[in-house]
């Protein structure tokens, strides 16, 4: 599998995205479960299929671009709102980036590490050993480290923030049992991680929103950075989780055509050793 990914990493991004669009529609046509979840999640957000139709193809592009992002050179990237990063770094504070399953979330961390310096991203280790090794090694590159959803991973992120670096989280990902609370997401209770607020409260880091817009025609990506609206520093877990979900909704509504509507956001958390 690693050799296949390495071979595909040399393909032009427009070709990978064209292949991904086909894969996205193939999954849509072949999986009734996926279609039902996709449409149900969009309805919760008050969106019609016409407003999210493009997300079917975009979800396939998300898969097809992975070999390039893991094993190839960082693709062309533009920035919007990077002054928020500059301001936080000027104060000597770490940054907690909160990114939903929107656009290309892999490229946001790579682009930050290439331009600004050290960053650690949180990931959930795959269950299959071969895939776990592939993911762990592929995401690690100069200035970019991967931290698992374990106590050791949390400590790794705390060290990075206290040194003035950055960490990245996908807060609309369902955390393991014991690492979250139930909070509304598009009006429906969703198990939501409490880690973002804990990192901010323990280190004084600046929370920022970030997502990588996939530009048309395979022309690369635009990294959008926005301020977090709300005070995480003194918030209790339930209130903090609700704030984080509200901010994720804000980003998704800005570009619903690139959100991963097929993600099982409202599933029960799985039993794991909690950090």
State the secondary-structure class: alpha/beta
CATH C-level category of the domain at 76-255: Alpha Beta
Count the DSSP helices: 12
**Largest beta-sheet characterization:** 7 strands, mixed
CATH architecture label of the domain at 76-255: 3-Layer(aba) Sandwich
Stretches with pLDDT under 50, minimum 5 residues: none
State which percent range the strand residues make up. 15-25%
- What's the CATH superfamily of the domain at 76-255, by name? Glycerol-3-phosphate (1)-acyltransferase
| Rounded average pLDDT | 92
Helical percent range?
A: 40-55%
Query: Given the C-alpha coordinates, what overall shape results?
Result: globular
State the CATH topology of the domain at 76-255: Glycerol-3-phosphate (1)-acyltransferase
Question: How would you describe what is shown here?
Answer:
The chain has 275 residues and is α/β, with parallel strands linked by helices. Helix content is 46%, strand content 18%. The chain has 12 helices and 9 strands. The chain has helices at residues 2-8, 13-30, 32-44, 49-52, 54-64, 66-71, 83-90, 105-115, 129-138, 151-162, 195-203, 237-254; strands spanning 77-80, 95-98, 119-123, 144-148, 166-169, 180-185, 188-193, 206-214, 221-227. The protein has a 7-stranded mixed beta sheet, with helices on both faces. A hairpin with a 2-residue loop joins strand 6 and strand 7 (188-193). The longest helix has 18 residues, at 13-30. The chain is globular. The model has no long low-confidence stretch (mean pLDDT 92).
């Amino acid at each position: 599998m690693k050799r296949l990914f390495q071979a595909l990493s040399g393909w032009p991004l427009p070709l990978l995205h064209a292949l991904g669009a086909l894969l996205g529609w193939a999954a849509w046509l072949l999986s009734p479960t996926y279609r039902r979840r996709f449409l149900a999640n969009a309805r919760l957000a008050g969106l019609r299929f016409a407003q999210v139709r493009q997300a079917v193809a975009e979800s396939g592009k998300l898969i097809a671009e992975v070999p390039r992002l893991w094993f190839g050179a960082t693709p062309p990237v533009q920035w919007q709102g990077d002054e928020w990063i500059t301001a936080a770094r000027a104060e000597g504070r770490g940054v907690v980036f909160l990114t939903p399953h929107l656009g290309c979330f892999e490229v946001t961390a790579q682009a930050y590490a290439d331009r600004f310096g050290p960053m650690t991203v949180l990931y959930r280790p795959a269950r299959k050993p071969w895939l776990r090794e592939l993911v762990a090694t592929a995401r690690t590159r100069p200035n970019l480290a991967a931290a698992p959803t374990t106590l050791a991973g949390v400590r790794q992120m705390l060290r990075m923030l206290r040194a003035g670096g950055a960490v990245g989280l996908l807060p609309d990902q369902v955390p393991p049992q014991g690492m979250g609370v139930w909070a509304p997401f598009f009006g429906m209770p969703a198990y939501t991680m409490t880690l973002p607020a804990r990192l901010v409260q323990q280190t004084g880091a600046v929370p920022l929103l970030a997502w990588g817009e996939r530009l048309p025609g395979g022309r690369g990506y635009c990294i959008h950075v926005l301020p977090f609206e709300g005070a995480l520093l003194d918030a209790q877990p339930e209130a903090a989780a609700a704030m984080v979900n509200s901010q994720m909704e804000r980003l998704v509504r800005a570009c619903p055509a690139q959100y991963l509507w097929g993600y099982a956001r409202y599933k029960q958390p799985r039993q794991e050793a909690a950090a």
